Structure formats: C-alpha cells, structure tokens
Automatic annotation (TrEMBL):
Protein name: Aminoglycoside phosphotransferase domain-containing protein
Residue intervals of the Aminoglycoside phosphotransferase domain: 34-259
Source species, domain of life: Bacteria
Transmembrane regions listed in the UniProt entry: none
UniProt-listed SUPFAM superfamilies: Protein kinase-like (PK-like)
C-alpha cells in the first residue's frame, strides 16, 4: 500500500469507474523503469488494473499506446489498453500479474531449473506466435516495418559497448582497428538476417507470468523490424537469469523446430551461427547499458549484472571463434577484456 496515489487524469478515473472501481480501491507501486515510468496496481475485490504514469507524452509513450493497440488487435500477448490520457501521460491497462519470468525462475540468486523447464517453452511458443504474425502485422503497420533494426542501429550497439565498457569501464583508450572492423562486419552480417517483428528488449523482466502459466510481454515500445534471431538471443543469454548452457541449447532447438520460417530457411548449424551473431550484438548492447546506467546514471542496481554479462559474452565469443577464424585477433582482444 502507498500513502499517496498519483494525480489521476479525469479520463482515467472515468474508465476505472466504468470497470467497477471505487474510491475504496487499494493502490500500490507495482514497478518503475529507468526512463521515469512508474506502474501502479489498483485492486478492489477480485478486480485489478495497472496505471502507467510517464514524465511526458514522449515518443516512447506514443509508441507504447499505438503499438499496444495494434498488438491487441492481433491478439498478441500484451496487456489490453483500456484508456489513455495524453495530457497527463497516463495509460490504464490490463494487469498481467505480479510475477515476471525473472522473479519466478531466479530465487536467492539461483536459477530454478524446474521452473525454467516449465516456463521457457511457454515463452518460446508465445515468441514464435509473435514472430509468425510479422507478414500480416507489417501490412497493417507499415510504420513499424519501416522502423528497421539495420546496420546503423546495430553499429550503434557495438559503439555503445566500446564507449561504456571498453573505454570507460576498462579504461582502454585505444581500440585496435581489428576490433573496430569486427564490430562493423558483425553489424553487416546481422543486417542480412531475415527480418521479423522484434520486441527489441525481450528479457526476463519484460515477460510476465500469469496465474495460469500463460505469459505476456511488456515494455514493447521499442518494437521494430529486425533479425529473427535477436529476441531469442536476448531471452536465452539474458544475464539477469544466466541459464545453464545446456538449457540455452535445448531451448534454442525448441525455438528452431517450432518456428517454421527458421527451420525451412536454415539447417540447424546455420541457424546456430546466426543466433550466435545476434547473441554477440545483444550482449554487447546489454553490457554497454549496464555500465552506462551504473556509472553515468548512478543507478547502482545495474552494477550487479556486469559480471554475469561479462561471463555470458565471453562464452558466446568462445563459441563463435571457431566459426569465424579470420576474426581471431579481434575476438582474442575482446575475450581478454572480459577476464
């Protein structure tokens, strides 16, 4: 319970009243994001709802509302949006529950293998359904199709890693040209992957686990058209969870066999190589973010994920090195930077 609820837009209040909420409803802070968003859970009897408040009706706010309504139209696993007030920058939506994938599969810093074995297949099934919607979804939302996760966006990620981890965190002033070339080549290769609807931040904190073990996706305002391998890489190498490698391999095979476009386009070894390329991209982005948020934004909670992120990235580099022998110098440098 919180002492004070936020100032609520009249439009939001009317929507709450129409759904049977009264002044007796209980309000509690359900979560917050580094971008300034806050989430309040509203509870009265068996009824629940979530209010998202934002500092302003900025581009992320607009994307969340617009994309969320389209995802609802396509019956994708995202919360229903019930009311929006632009002036107050507030969104009233369906409550998908209190539990994230992270909170269910990690307890006291340990990954619960049994819970992971049950829940990850459900998440992967939902992701495949999300990806398979791409052709029809893009016909209806050409603006999202045009929001491409292309070479420039991919190169931004490795530049982010170089600046925030290699230079600021590790204090490496001069980055070898071989490493810069590796970053450029990696972005080029990932840009050639088949492109589908991407969540773009598909990790355990953004996946909700409902009471019936169904799952839902939140924080989807970054959605765009990009490589089919990025979201599955984000999920399976997620430093918040650090799945055992055997599970990464098993769950990758579940996704590969369940996603027709992938297994009809590539054999398993080819798909694994492309998956590792997307994994390198994602993990370098995550490492850049952990360092930036902890060092520049002074959000101390992100510091704890730098070491797990280093271990995940180091392992993916080790797996990728035999598949890219011409990049030995760059990969060796990057591995040494993570030790």
């Amino acid at each position: 319970m919180i002492q004070e609820r936020p100032q609520i837009a009249p439009k939001i209040l009317r929507s709450l009243e129409s759904k049977g909420f009264t002044a007796k409803a209980a309000w509690s802070l359900a979560g917050s994001a580094g971008s300034g968003r806050q989430y309040y859970r509203i509870t009265e009897g068996e009824k629940t709802a979530i209010l998202q408040t934002n500092a302003s009706a900025n581009e992320d706010f607009e994307h969340f509302v617009s994309y969320g309504k389209s995802f609802n139209d396509f019956s994708l696993p995202t919360p229903e949006i019930w009311a929006v007030d632009d002036a107050f920058a507030q969104i009233l939506m369906q409550d998908m529950g209190e539990h994230t994938l992270l909170s269910v599969v990690v307890k006291d810093g340990q990954t619960l293998a049994g819970s992971a074995r049950v829940l990850y297949p459900a998440v992967i099934d939902a992701l495949v359904r999300w990806q398979e919607s791409s052709p029809k979804f893009f016909l209806c939302r050409a603006d999202i199709a045009a929001r491409r996760f292309d070479y420039s966006a991919l190169k931004w990620e490795t530049d982010y890693f170089r600046t925030n981890y290699l230079q600021k965190k590790r204090g490496i002033a001069e980055i070898p040209q071989a490493v810069e070339n590796f970053f450029s080549t990696l972005a080029c290769m990932v840009d050639t992957h088949p492109k589908v609807l991407m969540h773009r931040d598909f990790q355990s904190q953004n996946i909700m686990v409902c009471n019936n073990s169904e799952v839902g996706f939140v924080d989807f305002q970054g959605a765009r058209r990009g490589t089919m391998f990025y979201d599955i890489a984000s999920l399976l190498w997620d430093p918040y969870v650090s799945l055992p490698e055997a599970m990464v391999e098993d769950f990758f095979e579940d996704w590969y066999r369940g996603y027709t476009l992938c297994h009809e386009s590539f054999d398993k070894d080819e798909a694994w190589t492309l998956f590792l390329q997307a994994s390198l991209q994602r993990l370098m982005q995550a490492m850049g973010a952990f360092c930036f948020l902890s060092m520049e934004k002074k959000i101390a909670s992100f510091e704890q994920y730098i070491e797990p992120g280093k271990k995940r990235l180091l392992r993916v580099l080790e797996l990728y090195e035999p598949l890219s022998p011409s990049r030995h110098e760059a990969i060796t440098f990057l591995k040494n930077s993570l030790l």
